[in-house]
Amino acid sequence: MIDLKLLRAEPDVVRASQRSRGADPGVVDQVLEADAAHRAALADFEARRAEQKALGKEVAQASGEAKQELLARTKQLSTEVKELQASADAAAARAVELARSLGNIPESGVPSGGEDDFTVLRHEGQPRDFAAEGVEVQDHLGIAERLRAIDMERGAKVSGARFYFLTGIGARLELAILNAAMNAAQEGGFSPMITPTLVRPETMAGTGFLGSHAEEIYYLERDELYLTGTSEVALAGYHTDEILDLSDGPLRYAGWSACYRREAGSAGRDTRGIIRVHQFHKVEMFSYVTAADAAAEHARFLEIEERMLQALELPYRVIDTAAGDLGSSAARKFDCEAWLPSQERWMEVTSTSNCTTYQARRLAIRERGEQGTTPVATVNGTIGTTRWIVALLENHQQADGSVHVPEILRPYLGGLERLDPVA
Question: Nearest CA to 403 among 59, 144, 61, 208?
């Protein structure tokens, strides 16, 4: 949730934020009206409450008929106070509900627009010239089937479309990626965590995931629990309603979890193989940091992600995501996109977001400073996930059907330097 003090003081800033996201700036006025109604209702309640307390003292000193009149007035005031309190509470709930519908305010320099309006910051590595090498490019599923690494047919038989089995070297390859990612995170000062994948509605709403992308989330109505699409959700909720000590620097966690996404509205996009599926695994970095240090922490996350992609010997580019594609919580998001030879395009493999104080305000996570308690900032970023198998297989395929194994993964694969097709 954005800072209501900022909304009151600089509503035009928030209106501009809404416009850059392609959202309705008129919501700002609705929030201001609801906030004003709440403060007016609260003032009425406090005035009546003060009158009620003063009258109570008069009753204690009165007697006879005067006391009876005062008691009658006290009873009337009691009813009025309860009604005004209910009105103030309802107005507060309305103001908060509307305020929560506003997306975070993008950082200065974030491109305006939607999914296709990003800015390319840089390219790293050079895509291979497969034709010059005499390699007939295969897509990741064709390669994986020859390695007996992915079984889509039986995945669909067991669970339906967009489910799969990772088999043999496929399972080992995913574990290698995730273990290498966790090791890199731990070396970077992140504490390893295995997180819950079912969370309460308050936690899911607190992270900002129940907005425009709510249809992509699995919900277990009978249990009132959501299946998470990233361990960011559980890690954000980890310190709910707490006051943190950040005097020694950020609190950094790396969460390993299964992830679930309905992928609503994405029919026809990357339905072959495991590019866009309903279940996958991921290692997610997450940091609680002071608001002043959040941008620097965000840059640090991107640096760690890039080191991993470079170690995996993948050509990639870094993009500055446009405001309309940030999601409600992020103020800035950098995506790293690896080259996908079979489709001759860039494919997102990791991203990192600076959510500033947006999530912490909703989850009541603060730090104590000279000016009292203030919301902390949160930063998240992916450092390893199932989708990386796609980029690895396609970029490292060889003319003889084998796949080159980057050095960083070899210790987790028993020293294998290449993956060979199964006869």
Answer: 144
